[in-house]
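Write out the bound-state structure for adenosine-5'-diphosphate.
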Amino acid sequence: MRIFKFGGASVKDADGVKNLYKVLSQTGYKDTIILVSAMGKMTNSFEELVNFYFNDNSKTLIHLKSIKNFHQNIINSLFDKNKESVTLSLKNNLYELEKFFNESNSKNYSFVYDQVVSYGEILSTTIIFSYLKIKGLDISFLDARKCIKTDNYYRDSNLDWDLTVKKIKKQIKKGRSYVTQGFIGSDNKGNTTTLGREGSDYSASIFAYSLDAKDVTIWKDVPGVLNADPRFFSDTTLLTNISYSEAIELAFYGASVIHPKTLQPLQRKDIPLYVKSFLNPNMNGTTVSREIKIKPMIPCFIIKPNQTLLKLSSLDFSFIVEKNISEIFELLHKFQMKVDMIQNSAISFSVCVNNKYGRLRDLVKQLNTKFKVEVNENVDLHTVRHFDQKAIDKIKNNGKKILLEQRTNQVVQFVTI
Ligand code: ADP
Ligand code: ASP
Ligand code: MG
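---
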């Protein structure tokens, strides 16, 4: 079995869907699970929808209409005959969603988020599945929520591995091919859950692990894993080979090309991961496997923009010791902060966090009751793996003020503003 993952960028419009079919025609699609994300930036759009629902409800239905139009336009470009039945699926799904808005009285933002945002994946896979069918592919539709079983830590759910492996093995028949969703799962009550933003790479690796897949291919708008994000650096180099551990490190520090949770399950079963261009499916791209640490061996630059640096010190000039540190971490967890970097001295504790879930204000309020808190928002976290002096100079001379610096053998990090 092979696993293909197509992200939002690959199916951002009708041409993207046609290209997906072209990729499958070139690579073959037998015995393959085709995992797809929401189309283009639809996950962001569904996030806005949830925000309207909670904060400005009069705009909910108008926004839902724009989501409908986006998908309807893609359907109109893709289908000629059969248009009616795909349009009906779109309408039915959105009717269900509207019903949820009318009937739900949940105040749990994260719960509502998962019930709503998951429609991005449901709609994209419904459309893509129908398109592949009319193109004559012998393929089945699988609702990933039947297989991917999680706890109810909504928006960042944790996988129940044993149950998930069982369910996947039961649902997937050898020799068949499937279209399914990345990113989404369900809890033991049957409510929809999500695995965290960009989580569909992780879904691909969950399927691969469960089925002892031959390989996983993530189809991207870049030639593979580069030594820096091309959005921020003009001269980048393709890394043709990296080891699992190297890729885990890069992803952990924020190389957004692979989701950090994706790699460990693959490493445990020695399943290679290919990161390839959906525009040039015949090019080799990057191979992530056990053998080669990194090729070519060059500095790798990772930027995490829009992070927050918190500097805490005790109110009475006492030391920051284990007890305070454990309190701080408890609060960071409670407010769903993702910690990027920490540094402590006798009387202060600095932590660079990703305020992913918008809960910084509440966190700072609580921290203020126990510590003096200095907050720097919109800082950039730069990480360079395999750095040399030239790489350090490149960051130091970019005109920004350095707030924090940390170095180990392989890695140097800077927080800049
Ligand atoms: P998807 O459509 O699968 O969600 P993403 O947009 O999440 O794709 O990921 C692809 C993007 O990741 C690229 O367009 C690129 O801007 C960015 N990126 C960040 N770091 C790297 C890197 N080291 N190598 C390649 N691309 C990177
Ligand atoms: N659609 C989700 C997101 O944009 C998951 C993914 O694409 O990986 O975050
Ligand atoms: Mg993505």
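---
Residues 83-103 form the longest helix (21 residues).
The first strand starts at residue 2 and ends at 6.
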